[in-house]
Write a structure and sequence with these properties.
By secondary structure, the protein is α/β, with parallel strands linked by helices. The protein has six helices and 14 strands. It has a single domain, classed as Purple Acid Phosphatase, chain A, domain 2. Helix 2 packs parallel to helix 3 and helix 4 runs parallel beside helix 6.
Length: about 250
């Protein structure tokens, strides 16, 4: 199975609006054009891992719905800290291939989707209901399937203080639940960069943002104007990744 992760598109209602000097709508269109030209024929699904909008407008969500609905493959999405969940649902529920599921079961893998958004804050939090959902999904999971968790905020530091300041706040509660389970992978957005590392024996993967990256290791606001996405291939043996950045 081939899956593409798109994250942190930070779209506006107006294509000419800028985020830190970057026209994020135009960067997103560049990414989508590359995916259509090079990837889409054998892609099975896309994960949108949050911060879809920057201005939280209906129009910004409609733009991504219009771009991705024509691809005719399933789109699974979660909100980020910049998103308005109600407006996302309003737009995406009317787009046939968009799905806000909390669970996705495939032949060899099971995916659990979590909402880490806290209204008015940049860092993340798993509410008690989200922690209960995670626990329930892990208890009821198939013993024969590998498990991946999909969430916006990163549950362990990536080593870039600028973004590690906005990490998952109750990460200890999260790790207490997943430690010792069949979770093998955590896919997150938020960090605006390609990171891949193990924490508590579980691999954490993040994708480059489609708009721009935070310079790795920086404590101050430093921008890398590269854009990109991440490709995952899943099978019974595990998974492998290919990072596309330019």
């Amino acid at each position: 199975m081939k899956l593409i992760q798109l994250t942190d598109t930070h779209l506006f209602s107006n294509d000419e609006q800028e985020l830190f000097g970057v026209k994020s709508n135009l960067k997103f269109k560049e990414v989508i054009n590359k995916i259509i030209a090079e990837e889409i024929n054998d892609t099975d699904m896309i994960f949108l891992t949050g911060d879809i909008s920057q201005d939280e407008t209906i129009e910004s969500y409609q733009k991504i719905a219009d771009h991705l609905s024509s691809l005719n493959i399933p789109i699974y999405w979660i909100p980020g800290n910049h998103d308005d969940l109600i407006r996302m649902e309003t737009v995406f529920q009317n787009t046939a291939n968009f799905n806000y599921h909390r669970h996705l079961s495939l032949p060899e893998w099971q995916f659990i989707f979590l909402n880490t958004k806290v209204e008015g804050r940049g860092d993340g939090l798993l509410s008690q209901s989200e922690l209960a959902l995670l626990t329930s999904e892990l208890v009821s999971s198939s013993p024969h399937k590998k498990i991946a968790i999909v969430m916006h905020h990163h549950p362990a530091p990536v080593g870039t203080p600028l973004i590690d300041h906005y990490i998952l706040e109750n990460a200890d509660e999260f790790w207490n639940i997943v430690r010792g389970t069949k979770v093998e992978l955590i896919i997150c957005g938020h960090v605006h960069g390609d990171y891949r590392f193990k924490h508590n024996d579980i691999m954490i993967e993040s994708s480059p943002a489609t708009c721009m990256q935070w310079e790795k290791g920086s404590s101050e606001l430093k921008i890398d104007t590269s854009i990109g996405y991440k490709i995952y291939y899943f099978d019974e043996n595990g998974y492998r990744v290919i990072v596309k950045m330019w």
